[in-house]
Protein: PPM-type phosphatase domain-containing protein
Organism: Streptomyces erythrogriseus
Amino acid sequence: MASCYQRAHPPNGVGGDWFDVIPLSGARVALVVGDVVGHGMDAAATMGRLRTAVRTLANLDMPPDELLAHLDDLVIGLMGAHDDHEPAAAGAAFLGATCLYAVYDPVSGRCSMARAGHLPPVLVSPDGTVEVMDLPAGPPLGLGYLTFESCERELTEGSLLAFYTDGLVETPDRDIDEGIDRLGAALAVPRPTLREIGRGVVDTLLTGPPPDDAALLLARTRSLPADRVASWDLPSDPAAVGTARTAAVRQLTEWGLDDLAFTTELIVSELVTNAIRHASGPVSLRLIRDRALICEVADGTGTSPRPRHARTTDEGGRGLMIVAQLAHRWGTRHTATGKIIWTEQPFVAEP
C-alpha cells in the first residue's frame, strides 16, 4: 500500500477527502476512498463520521453493495437528525458525499467492489495494460432511492489498483476524463516502489497548487501461495471432529507451528463440533498461514452463533467462550451458502 494526500490551495480549512485500509478476516483487506463536498469543520466532521461508520460496518464482513446500502441509510438518518446543537447545515454536509469500497482476497485473487457516486478505480496489469474498471456508479450517499451493485474481478498477482478523488484528476483547465487518462499513463510508468509511483502521479497531474483536496491510494495485489492454505471437507458425523483435529495438527507440523497445535486443536474441536451439531449442509475446515494463523469452519446455516454464560450445572454452552479465550480475534461472516466462523492466532515470538 501507498498513499498521497494533497491539500487544496489556498487552504480553506481541512477538507473532506479520505481513504482507509482495513484488515478483514480470512487474510482479506478492504480498500476505501471517499469524498465529502466542501471544506472546513463541517466537511471534516462529516468525513470523520463516514470513516468511522465504514470501519464499523467493515467489521461485520458485509459485501460491498450491502455495506454501502447501510452507509446510505446512516447518512439519511444523520441528514435528518439535527437540533440546536447540530444545525441543519451540519446534516446537509453529507449531501453529495461519495464512497468506493473494495475487498481483496489474496487466497482466491478476487476483488469485489461497489461505489456510491465515486470515480472508478484504475487497474494496471503486470504487463502495463491500463484499464478504468467498469463498475456501476451507484448514487451518491444520502439519496436513498437507488440501489448499489457489486462487481467482482479476478486480479493477476502484481496488479496495481489506484483509488483517488476528483481533486487529483479534475482542474479548471482539465475535465475528469482527460485527467483519468493522464492518471493511467502516469501509473503505467515503471518505478521501484509504490510510494515513488504515487509521487510521480501527483507530480504529473498536479503541476501547480490544486484547487481542491486530492487523495490517492495505491495497492499492489499479492496472492498467498497454495502451500500456505489447507482445507478439508468434513462429513456431518461426530466422528469427523477427531479427523479434523488430526488433520489440523499434522498441517501445523508441516508449517513448523507446533507451538500452536494445542490451542488450534481445541479451537478446531469446538468449531467443528458446533457446526456438525447445530448447523446443516456441508461442513469444511480451512487453515491459512498468513501474518497469523487463521482457522475457518464453514457450514450451510446462516444463523450466527453467540457466546453465552453457561451455568455450573450445564453440560454444554462453553464452546465459544473457550474459543474467545484461546484466539486473538474471532467472528462470523456470511457467505452465499451459509456462514464461516473464523479465528486468528498470532505466531509465538521467538525467544
Residues 116 and 138 are 5 Å apart (CA to CA). The first helix runs from residue 41 to 58. The chain has two domains: 2-220, 226-345.
